[in-house]
Amino acid sequence: MLLSKDQTRAVVEKILTSEGPDQELLSFAEALRKPVVICTEHFGNLSLNREFDWFEGKRKWNRRLTDVVFTKSADGSIEDAIKTAETLWADEAGWKQRADDYAVEKLLPLKNASWLEDNDVEVTSNEFKARMKLVSRARADSLSGTRTAICFGAIPLKFGGR
């Protein structure tokens, strides 16, 4: 290809043909199709999701099986994300209590002021907690300084740096 001096135009000088498939490129493509799995003690096998460039698995949280996602840190590792998740799981009941208390503090006044139907009475703290279903939790100050999120329902638990 010939390029003009101002690099605004190009002309094809000749088309190069190949004598067959590039074996090195085919080998590389084959390697990329193989699954990448990391075995962990607390989270079992984590599989690389190449579309999102994160590792996925499943683990029970509060007796419910949920998806767990670990994103890579700047150096490409998920070690810090796993350590953060292990710390959260070590105090699972404490984190549930903190999430419930936070939701009551921030949302119960709004519920009682704005979301009551006609003839409804105000909801107590205990009633509110009984009706609650935790669907999302985010933590910006994880042990490694990376972002961490715990989400329940259709959204996965996510640990890591991006």
Task: Compile the SSE list and pairings.
Elements lengths: L1 E2 L6 E2 L11 H11 L3 E4 L3 E6 L4 E8 L2 E8 L7 H12 L1 H23 L10 H7 L4 E4 L8 E4 L5 E3 L3
Parallel strand pairs: 6-9
Antiparallel strand pairs: 1-2, 3-4, 4-5, 5-6, 7-8, 8-9
Could you walk me through the main structural features you see in this protein, from its secondary elements to its overall organization?
It contains 4 helices and 9 strands; from the N terminus they run ββαββββαααβββ. The longest helix is centred in the middle third of the chain and has 23 residues, at 92-114. Strand 5 (54-61) and strand 6 form a beta hairpin. It has helices spanning 23-33, 79-90, 92-114, 125-131, and strands at 2-3, 10-11, 37-40, 44-49, 54-61, 64-71, 136-139, 148-151, 157-159. It is α+β, with helices and mostly antiparallel strands and 162 residues long. The protein is elongated, with a radius of gyration of 25 Å. It has a 7-stranded mixed sheet with strand order 3-4-5-6-9-8-7, covered by helices on one side.
- Spatial order of the strands forming the largest sheet: 3-4-5-6-9-8-7
Mean pLDDT over all positions: 80
Strand content: 25-35%
Shape: elongated
- Radius of gyration, CA atoms, in whole angstroms: 25 Å
What's the helix-strand series? EEHEEEEHHHEEE
Major sheet:
7 strands, mixed
The termini sit apart by 40 Å
Instruction: Briefly note the structural class of the backbone.
Output: alpha+beta
Contiguous helical run count? 4
Strand runs, count? 9
Approximately how much helix is present in the residues? 25-40%
**Low confidence ranges:** 136-148, 150-158
